[in-house]
Structure formats: C-alpha cells, structure tokens
User: Fold these one by one.
Assistant:
Number 1:
Amino acid sequence: MSRQKELVDAIAALPGVHTEPHRFGGVEFKVGTREIGHVHGDRMVDIPLTLAIRAQLVAEKRANVHHLLPESGWLSYYMNADQDLAGAQWLLSFSYLRTLGQLRKRGLADPASDAVNISAELDQLGASGELRTLLSCVQTEEAA
C-alpha cells in the first residue's frame, strides 16, 4: 500500500474529516470547509498553521517551513521512508485537533466530532507544553 493511501485512510477515519482532490494535485483533508492539510503523492504533506505553531513544530524538529511559502504559517513534511508516515499522521492529527478547537469556539463544530476530547487526544499525541500553550482552544476546553 502506498504511503499516500495509508495516510488518507488514517486521517479520513477521524470523526468529521472528509477528503477531496487538492487544487495542486494530491488529496486534501478537511473538517467542514477548513483544510487541515494535504498530501502530494507518497512524499510530501503540507499543513496550514499559525506562524507561532509552525515555528514551534520546526523547533521541535517535527517539520520544515513550507517549501514554497517560507514566510507563512504553512509547513511541509517529507515522507522519505515508510517510517516517516507516522510523523505525517501525527502532524495532520495535531492540525485536526487544532481545527476542531477553533470550530468549537465559534459554535461550528461538526456533530460527528462532538465526542472528541481535544485535551485527551493531545495527551495521547504527546504534544509538548509549548504547543498546548499555543492552542487557546485547549485552554478554553479545559477551563470549561
């Protein structure tokens, strides 16, 4: 099975995620109308984040600045070997949780994802304290 197929199967299985063709090729992952990232073939994943979150993920050596938009919040992750698939899945799962939190704060969450406990899922991912601090959605959920 290709890396792209494995990644699409894993991320599309998350509650509320759907896929569609990406305008520059590959597969785009969305929650509602919001993109959480996309994969180009078996080699590269791009994910939209804030500059601060992107900087933290680069500092943690989880990803690289975007290959074409280095001044943006976008990041790129390269799957050079089969073992890199786990890193791509981690990043897309993190982006998914971030997006769920944003949508919940705006009252726009998909009912399919209502049961997802963002804080517990971030624990399971082993997200750093620095990343958690950058996610205001987690602070809001934990305070509730």
Number 2:
Amino acid sequence: MSECVRCGQCCISVGKTFWMNGEFKDYPQLEALAEKTAVVDEGLPCEMLQMKDGVAACKIEVLYGRDAKPKVCREYPELQCRHESDKMRHGRGICYLLSG
C-alpha cells in the first residue's frame, strides 16, 4: 500500500454519505450516527473529509483510528475493480464515473 499524501482526492468525487459504506459494529458512536443520517448523496465531497491548510484528514480516522474507516477507504488507491469495458481501474469511486 502506498503512503497517503493527504491530498483528499479519495474523498472528493464520492457522495457526501459515502462513509456510511463502513462496518461500524465495533464503533457504536459511528453506527448510531449512520443510523440517524439520511442517505442522500446529493453532494460532494464525503462529509467526513476535513481540510485544514491544504491537508486532508478523515474525521472517522481522527476520532476512532484508521481501522474504523470503511475498507474501501482504507485501501484507496490500491483497490482495483473491473469496469464494464473490461479494463482494470484503480481507486475508489471511479468505476461508475469512468466509461469506455
């Protein structure tokens, strides 16, 4: 896994409630927050992204540690998926954003 450069690109092109794709059974505070948050991804970036002086951080990671983040977030950009065009794509959120 490559080292995070804290650019925020992993969180910018996903919906604001993308963070809710995590498994939070070991994090009751996050589980409760996810249950009462409306799942409406009508905005960008992920609402857990915080930027300060050009440096990105995930609110989940800041408060609960890296293991609390959704798996897809922890694996970015190494996560690979196969696009319908049968080309390998790297990164999260791009399979549905790219075509061809």
